[in-house]
Amino acid sequence: MSNQKLFNVAVVGATGAVGEQIIGLLEKRNFPINQLKLLSSARSAGTKVTFKGQEIVVEEAKPESFEGVEIALFSAGGDVSKALAPAAVERGAICIDNTNAYRMDPDTPLVVPEVNIDAINEHKGIIANPNCSTIQMVAALKPLQDRYGISRIIVSTYQAVSGAGARAIDEMVRQSSEVLAGREVEPQILPVGALPVKHQIAFNVIPQIDKFQDNGYTLEEMKMVRETKKIMDDESIEVTATCVRVPVVYGHSESVYVELKNEYELEDVRKLMENAPGITLVDDPANQQYPLATEAAGKPDVFVGRLRRDLGHTRGLNMWIVSDNLMKGAAWNAVQIAEFIAIEQ
Predict the structure, then answer these.
(1) Contact 61, 76 (CB under 8 A)
(2) Is the full-model pTM beyond 0.85?
(3) Average pLDDT, stretch 100-120?
(4) How many CB atoms lie within 10 A of CB 106?
(5) Where are the alpha helices (DSSP H) in the chain?
(6) Does the pLDDT at position 60 exceed 50?
(7) How far is CA 29 from CA 22, 52, 132, 276, in A?
(8) Is 95 among the catalytic positions?
(9) What span, in angstroms and rounded, lies between the C-alpha atoms of 323 and 298?
(10) According to the 3-state scheme, what is the secondary structure of 143-207?
């Protein structure tokens, strides 16, 4: 990005897991930065972060923090985004929000660059980053939508504990040690920190991510339903989801069944995946090669494999989709959007 305008950039939630990834990507990608401002809660203010060999002191995020800021990347929770993103926009910043605060706002584009990059141009100051599990699924399904059309999606997710934060990772590690040592396990965080009942995650799977809604689905499941329709710009697509927390640190895995509107050849689908932006095809069952969370961790791509024709529907296709939930599922998607904004200006 040489010979480009330099931008004043703010990262809100700079000391969190996603914030750290964003800062690392901005450095690795040599994003055109004039001044980098790192913001957080009052609790984390004063922390020092190294960026391109220089120490930057993290400041408490306040409305006045955004004076002069042109691009602000938010990953500090929905309440913070609701409170501060409008203040940043008022001061001239374009906000890229990683939370659920604005995703379904009709005036806010919900963007996965490989799927609907042009939607960025419709923003009114805020651009929303979708849910991590939605991002990787729609990135893999976009080539199929363009070629064949999609009528129905059934997805079951196997989501890493890092999606629930650093404390959830610590809980899984602690519980694993307790189980192996024969000690009693006392769950404290999962499945939902704000709810009274807690379940063991070590050596277990929990079929609940976020709070249950009146229709029996969890909020995470309904995010996938609503966001998929919005991103793919097709309310007619039937989407149903079951979201499950598994004892994995990084990397969400998904079993996806998709019904296409037109007939397809499996080899053509493979070629589509091989040529799709941001997709890596790992599909060699004869040699036991398929996407794994351990191999996706730390990488920006979405990995696709286990491609196979459905046994009961001629236009049905089954696939396995894996991606690092903190990378493509959050930080990298946000930085991609920021890079597009930088190029356009």
Answers:
(1) yes
(2) yes
(3) 98
(4) 6
(5) 17-28, 78-90, 113-116, 132-148, 166-180, 219-231, 266-275, 293-296, 332-344
(6) yes
(7) 10, 11, 21, 21
(8) no
(9) 9
(10) HHHHHHCEEEEEEEEEECHHHHCHHHHHHHHHHHHHHHCCCCCCCCCCCCCCCCCCCCCCCCCEC
Task: Please compute, for residue 34, the number of CA atoms within 13 A of its CA located in the half-sphere on the CB side.
Answer: 11
Are 261 and 234 contacting, i.e. CB atoms less than 8 angstroms apart?
no
Distances in Å between the Cα of 344 and the Cα atoms of 66, 121, 188, 338, 340 are: 21, 9, 46, 10, 6
Cα–Cα distance, 98 to 100 (Å, whole number): 7
* Amino acid, single-letter form, for residue 140: A
* Rounded average pLDDT over 172-192: 98
pLDDT for 4: 77
Residue 228: what residue type?
A: T
**Range 159-181 average pLDDT:** 97
| 165: region left, alpha or beta (phi > 0 left; psi from -120 to 50 alpha) | left
Q: Is 252 one of the catalytic residues?
A: yes
State both tokens at 22: 């964003």
pLDDT tens for residues 227-260? 999 999 999 999 999 999 999 999 999 999 999 9
In angstroms, the CA 270 to CA 255 distance is 17
173-198: burial string, b at 16+ Cβ within 10 Å, e else: eebbeeeeeeeebebebbbbeeeeeb
- The 10s digit of each residue's pLDDT in 133-143 is 999 999 999 99
User: Helix crossing, 266-275 with 132-148: angle to 10°?
Assistant: 120
Of the residues 95, 123, 132, 243, only one is catalytic, namely: 132
Distance CA 211, CA 221 (A): 10
**Token pair for residue 325?**
């939930």
Q: Which two tokens stand for residue 75?
A: 């990953």
Spot the catalytic one: 95, 123, 243, 252: 252
